[in-house]
Amino acid sequence: MQENLSDNQLVELISKGEYKYLQQLINRYMPYIISVASRFNGGGLDTDDFIQEGVLAIFSAVKTYDSSKASFKTFAGLCVNRAMSTALSRAVGNAKHIPEELISPIDDIELADTSDPETILIEKESFSDLEHSIKKDLSDFEYSVLVEFLSGKSYADIATSLGVSTKSIDNALRRIRSKIKQ
Predict the structure, then answer these.
(1) Reduced to 3 states, what is the DSSP secondary structure of residue 98?
(2) What tens digit of pLDDT does each residue of 19-37 get?
(3) Is residue 96 situated within a structural domain?
(4) Per the domain annotation, does 1 fall within a domain?
């Protein structure tokens, strides 16, 4: 795997099915996700919940990114912030309760420097712990559905791949979301 690829190059490779680069992209953004998550701490969710939302936001950003509109860094930052804001509003039951200091303009977003080997190692361990925690809480079927879903497959494609109905996939994803929130 090449470490010196740009965000846009990584997104392009992932979009073409090279999912091994997804870990590299998540590692690159993990310090930022953790930084934002620590600002959102409270409101019925702990920092780990916000980190999970941030990681899922990166997955979503990869799937929906349009390079003609913004840089991936800007778009990913926006996705992470919105995902955490949404999680906080769901937790408190009303978006009006989001403290003003947690909402920042997109221009104020800065990503942490991830060129430090120690930081990279710590972030890899954090991601590994998060991945292990998610895998531990899910059944084998749910984990298979999650892996397929995060790779960008549609409900129908996942259902065909796993030999079940699309309703089973929908139900599994609802259980997964519920378990990840807990």
Answers:
(1) coil
(2) 888 889 999 999 999 888 8
(3) yes
(4) no
Residues in the chain: 182
Round to the nearest angstrom and report the end-to-end CA distance of the chain: 34
CB atoms within 10 A of CB 115: 7
Q: Does position 108 have pLDDT exceeding 60, yes or no?
A: no
Burial code (b: 16+ CB inside 10 Å, e: under 16) for 17-41 equals eeeebbebbbbbbbbbbbebbeebe
Residue with tokens 């509003």: 89
- Phi/psi at 33 (5° precision): -60, -45
In this predicted model, what pLDDT tens digit does every residue of 127-144 receive, in sequence order?
677 677 777 888 889 888
Mean pLDDT of 62-83: 89
**Tokens 């392009």 belong to residue:** 12
Same domain, 100 and 72: yes
The domain that contains 156 carries what CATH number?
1.10.10
Considering the domain architecture, whether residues 81 and 163 belong to the same structural domain is answered as no
